Structures are given as structure tokens and as C-alpha cells.
Amino acid sequence: MEFRRCGRLFSYGLxxxxxxxxxxxxxxxxxxxxxxxxxxxxxxxxxxxxxxFVAASPxxxxxxxxxxxxxxxxxxxxxxTLYFLCENTALSYSTASNVVLLCGISPLLTGIxxxxxxxxxxxxxxxxxxxxxxxxxxxxxxFNGHFVLKLNPLGDFLxxxxxxxxxxxxxxxxxxGTSYTPVQTARKMLFYxxxxxxxxxxxxxxxxxxxxxxxxxxxxxxLFLALFASAFCTWGWNIVxxxxxxxxxxxxxxxxPPLTMLFSALVLGERITxxxxxxxxxxxxxxxxxxxxxxxxN
Length: 298
What we know:
The longest helix is centred in the last third of the chain and has 29 residues. This protein is mostly helical. The mean pLDDT is about 80. α1 packs antiparallel against α9 and α2 packs antiparallel against α8. It is about 75% helix and about 0% strand. The chain has one domain.
């Protein structure tokens, strides 16, 4: 099957699967942060995900094209290494509400970047209207009627850097990997990600506690993040971007907060308030409007 030309229904189904997984990974990460450092969690999950892709495509791949190779390296460093390190570190300095809100603007930043750096994804009224509704919905869900925004310059700056990194990754990966299959593309991206993390592991940025992996619950959560959040989602999201475009694909990320809200209610017993319901409705409406964007931004 040629995944670069698969149908829109398949692409949206794959996007739904990826966004659902992203919306529930916070439970695993929250648990793991009790035993492991943020950078350490990322290193373990990327290493295991890379091993999966090596097993799926074991043949050594020489760079087919230098420009393509640089794009894949940049995608891995931007979309995984920089994004997750900035986001997780931001949580150490700023409130979770600030971080989620600032990281949540990555689809908007993607649209702006695509307008200037791509030929067929221009800003449109539908995109602008959908983005406004989605951001308003995220605000309602996060602050849940308690509209107190505390500024934490370093943490908020890092969260904004994470959003910018993911937007840049989306633009870069759209034109990357043209010489490889989706599995090979994901493998190469994660290779450069893993290489950067191994370098950081030799510095104080990543502090390792491998003995904690002996705990069954820790190992199980790492496996979940590696196999699903890193391996499957890296493979799947690249295909979604290739088939829907960077702007349409990233606008679907807006549905993550409502999914997280529902998952929190089902698993953690958190209460769903009218503000959260209104926020979810705004997001779903905004995503629907934003998907009306046609090629060329009409």
C-alpha cells in the first residue's frame, strides 16, 4: 500500500488513533516522573522505538539524498528531542495550565509557518476562524472557570519554544523522506533523535536511573510510551502530514484536550464541568471549520 497516496478516510482514521494515544500518554508520563527524570523517560522510549524500526527494516540505509537526510535529521531533533525536552522542562518552572495552553498553539504556528514556507498551504479565513475557536476551547478546558494566568518567564518561554519546534517539525517532515518508506523515514528520524539524546546523556541534562526499570509498572509504562507514543505515532503522524498537509494535520491536535478530559474522567474520576464541556464543543467546532481549508488556502 502506498501510504503517501492513501485515502482521506484512512488518513483521518490514523490521525484519530494518534491523537487518542497522545491524549492518554499523560497518565504514563505522570506515573513515570515519580521514578525517572523527564529526559531519561524520553531516552528510554526513543531507544526502544528505534529498536522496533530497526527490526522492521534491518537493512542498512545509506543516505539517498543529502538534502533529504538533513530534513529527516532536523525533523527528529525538532519534533522529538527539542519538543519534549522543552515541554517537560517547562513543567518544572511554570504551571501545567500555562504549558498546555502555550504548547496548544502549535497548530496556529504551523499555519503561519506554512503560509510563508510552503506553496500550497496558505492562511485562510476558515483556518483563522477555526484556530480562534480551538484556542478559546483549550482555554476553557484548562482554566475550568478559574481564570488565573500566572506568568513564569522561563517556563513559559520553554513552552513556547516547544510549540515552535513542533510547528517547524511539521513543515520540515512534509517534504522529507521522499526516498524512503514510512517505516524507513521514522527509523531515520528516531536515529538522529537517539543520537542527540545519547550525547545529552553524557551531560547533566539527562540523569539516568536504570535500576528503576526493574519495577514492572515502570517497565510497562516505558514500553507503552515506546511502542505506541513514539513508534506508532511517529510512523502514523508522518503519513497524516504527507496526505493531509501540515496545517490540516496539526489542527487535529486541538482535539487532544477534550480527549484528555474524557480519559481523566473515566480513569481518574475527575469531574467534567460545564466550562470543560463548552470548551470541548468549541474545539470540535473549530476543528470542523479548519478542515474546510482547501489547497491554496481558499
